[in-house]
Write a structure and sequence with these properties.
The complex is a heterodimer. Chain A is of the alpha/beta class. Chain A is 35% helix and 23% strand. Chain A starts with 10 loop residues before the first strand and ends with a helix. The chains are: A alpha/beta, B alpha+beta.
């Protein structure tokens, strides 16, 4: 690898201390305002190059009295400046992440022997040693960023943003990104939705996986309006009409006054007892619920229990011939008595499930097999955005997402097992994007939802999650530990910061950085999916983004010929 | 070059020089002087004047208490005094052939060796040899007026550079003084106070 050739003005300081476990200390030789937290720094030490992140800046003095006393009031300005230059200093704390043995200068006498000992080009690897004292440090250049994060024009690389100081592009490898579940975090209003749109657009364009997005607030499919700026926000369907299907929950649901591609209705027979158990907290169900559900399945069968239970009458009584008042034969109480179930428990469950009975998207016989159509679209390489329309309650979100994901999980497991035993085409990778993930993936729900199983196991079956959430501390630890790439905007809560950094090296050094990110402008990229933690100035989700992603002229509506061509006709 | 005096006594650290009071070119406090010792090989010692003593004798002590001492008597006792003006000088380096070293001289000069003032060219050449190594000789003794001495010396060098040519030396020298004294806050601030009073010019855009 060619030796870097930097003049002395490129250097910002030199190493004065530190250790491998924590951070390195770099004495700044430039004014501290030129360097900011999160800066990407390269340290050159003999034949090695070390890459790290600035995590702290500290003022210091050779003697505290130099800092305490304002000698500029006692001495002429020029003399005071000389004094300060020698006695007051700023140290950077740099979290080392990667290193590269670049070898001596190719023109030096040592190079041939070194090259003979290292016939293969050296590769960047996790840091295992530290630079020497006084090793010079500089800000990373475009070549350094490209060497670590990949070149933007290489296949599979997607520009997620730029370095803050010098605007060098930072890429994520989308193929690696989808190999494990990922997370996008940040407090409310920090730009998570825009970042999600950017990443999803990249994934759709790269065609590495199918995407199923649960769009709880109808933000992603059709064009939207930003709540703070009132500017138009382009929807994914607008730009990818041939690839993206917008599905509305409920028969006549309109999304942003537009007709979705099709509507989803759930059959009563689709609802399984485990779907109801998952709603324990939401519906305030009692501990007798599992027993009651089991009895219902036993009585009416797995496919019909919901319909039959729904049609039982609550509190219905009849008068017998001898004047006694007894539960009617079609009452909940009568069934409970005949099945050996506690009557109060059964009636209580029936009453609480009335919130589901009233949902218009749960019908006995849906007009079409919406669930099947969604799965079919995903298998065919299309992307589905399920918009919830007016059904924005937690109950709807929990029920529908879990039910659909359970079906998908089963489908993908079946296809993967068939592929592994019989060969054929590898199943199409699938990314399930869920907002408000803490509602589905908290500790209490984790054992009950299909999502935690996906987070834990399903990468073996080509299914991963993309979690979008503002309260990562409420997500089950085990799920968080499975996340590969984590992209985090500003977080204010200590518990949330700790959750995002859990299991990562250098988390203590990175903690303060998350609380000082500029909302809507900066994110921290970290985790297995990226070579090293890096602070990124995120891209703007604007016409320039689409021009770069899709080529110029994409703002014009495409004609039918273009669409057919894209579909393969 | 007119000699300014002759050596009275010396050690490896410094010497005391005797001068006639009437001499117009008696070196000033903080000035650099040189003491040639041998021609073959060429060897001379450089020293910095750090003290000037005017000692009394028996006649002067009597005249001080007398009333109405005539002017000519005063002049006579100044010009024709038996006791010389004494200069104390600190050795700061030496020259052997063409090379200048900021080290303690290997051999001190001997009694009655002649002392000469350094011209501005000599001063610049001495100061620009090496990297201010001779400052440690100035800073080492506990009983020197370090701040005043450095202020006077830097002012001399600054004037010489303005005449002969060269720039940036005073700032570099000040930086070196700060580096050497930054663990001794009281001394450093005292030295900087003296440098401030010397009214040297420092760039404010560093």
């Amino acid at each position: 690898m060619a030796q870097s050739n930097h003049d002395q003005t490129a250097y910002i300081g030199y190493v004065v201390g530190g250790n491998l476990k924590d951070t390195l200390s770099v004495r700044l030789t430039v004014p501290p305002q030129q360097i900011q937290e999160g800066g990407f720094v390269v340290i050159e030490s003999d034949d090695w190059q070390f890459y790290g992140l600035v995590t702290d800046l500290q003022l210091g003095a050779t003697d505290a009295r130099f800092a305490d006393e304002q000698s500029e009031n006692r001495l002429p300005a020029g003399l005071a400046k000389l004094l300060h230059g020698q006695t007051l200093f700023t140290n950077l704390q740099v979290l080392p992440a990667l290193m590269l043995e670049r070898g001596p200068n190719p023109h030096s006498l040592r190079y041939p022997a070194w090259r003979a000992a290292h016939p293969e080009d050296p590769t960047i690897r996790p840091v295992k040693t530290i630079p020497s004292h006084h090793a010079p440090a500089r800000l990373a250049e475009a070549g350094d960023v490209a060497a670590i994060f990949g070149k933007p024009d290489e296949e599979g690389n997607f520009i997620i943003g730029t370095t803050r100081e010098q605007n060098h592009p930072i890429c994520i490898n989308l193929k690696k990104f989808i190999q494990r579940s990922s997370g996008i975090f940040g407090a409310t209003g920090t730009g998570k939705s825009f970042l999600t749109r950017i990443i999803l657009a990249g994934l759709i364009q790269a065609d590495q996986a199918s995407i199923l997005l649960f769009d709880m607030h109808n933000e992603y499919g059709f064009d939207d309006t930003a709540s703070d700026t009132n500017e138009k926000v382009t929807g994914l369907w607008t730009k990818f009409r041939a690839k993206v299907r917008v599905v509305g929950l409920g028969r006549a649901t309109m999304i942003r006054n537009k007709q979705p591609d099709f509507n989803l209705e759930l059959a009563e027979s689709d609802i399984m007892p485990e779907d109801i158990e998952m709603l324990t907290q939401e519906l305030n169900l009692r501990e007798t619920t599992p027993a009651t559900l089991e009895a219902l399945v036993h009585s009416f069968g797995r496919d019909h229990w919901f319909h039959r239970f729904m049609n039982l009458r609550h509190g219905a009584v009849i008068e017998t011939a001898d004047g006694k008042v007894v539960p009617a034969p079609d009452s909940v109480a009568a069934w409970a008595a005949s099945s050996g179930v506690n009557i109060a428990a059964a009636e209580g469950l029936h009453s609480k499930l009335s919130r589901l009975y009233n949902r218009s998207y749960i019908v006995e016989r849906p007009a079409a097999d919406g669930l099947g159509a969604i799965i079919q679209s995903l298998e065919n390489g299309q992307h589905v955005i399920l918009s919830f329309g007016q059904f924005e309650s937690d109950l709807d979100y929990l029920l529908v997402t879990n039910l659909l994901t359970r079906r998908i999980r089963a489908k993908w497991e079946e296809r993967t097992n068939r592929y592994r035993s019989e060969g054929g085409n590898e199943p199409r990778p699938l990314v399930i994007a869920i907002e408000e993930a803490h509602k589905l993936l908290n500790r209490e729900m984790a054992a009950q939802t299909a999502f935690s199983a996906i987070a834990r196991e399903m990468r073996k079956y080509f299914v991963t999650l993309l979690i979008i959430d503002q309260r990562p501390s409420q997500i089950y630890d085990e799920v968080m530990s499975q996340l590969g790439t984590r992209i985090s905007g500003w977080l204010g809560d200590d518990a949330d910061i700790q959750a995002v950094l859990a299991g990562l090296a250098g988390k203590d050094a990175l903690r303060g950085m998350l609380a000082r990110l500029q909302p809507k402008e900066e994110v921290l990229l970290l985790g297995w999916g990226v070579p090293m933690p890096i602070l990124v100035r995120s891209r703007r989700y604007d016409q320039a983004f689409w021009d770069e992603l899709l080529g110029k002229g994409n703002s014009k509506s495409r004609n039918e010929g273009d669409i057919l061509k894209e579909l393969g006709f | 070059m007119i000699e300014v005096g002759r050596l009275l006594r010396s050690s490896i650290n410094g010497c005391v020089v005797g001068c006639k009071v009437s001499q117009e070119n008696v070196p000033e406090f903080g000035s650099l002087v040189r003491i040639p010792i041998t021609e073959q090989p060429f060897y001379q010692v450089f020293a910095l004047v750090y003290d000037i003593h005017v000692l009394d004798d028996g006649l002067v002590r009597q005249l001080v208490t007398s009333e109405g001492v005539p002017e000519e008597v005063i002049l006579d006792n100044r010009i024709n005094r038996n006791v010389p003006l004494e200069l104390s000088a600190l050795f700061v380096g030496y020259q052997l052939e063409q090379e200048i070293y900021h080290l303690i001289p290997p051999k001190p000069p001997l009694a009655l060796d002649a002392i000469y003032p350094c011209l501005q060219e000599d001063l610049c050449r001495f100061c620009e040899a090496g990297r201010f190594g001779y400052f440690r000789h100035i800073l080492r003794p506990a009983d020197l007026p370090v701040g005043e001495l450095l202020a006077a010396h830097l002012r001399d060098v600054n004037a010489a550079q303005n005449t002969v040519g060269g720039s940036g030396w005073v700032e570099a020298a000040t930086r070196e003084v700060i580096t050497l004294l930054r663990d001794d806050y009281p001394n450093l601030m005292s030295v900087l106070s003296a440098l401030a009073d010397a009214r040297l010019e420092y760039s404010e855009s560093l």
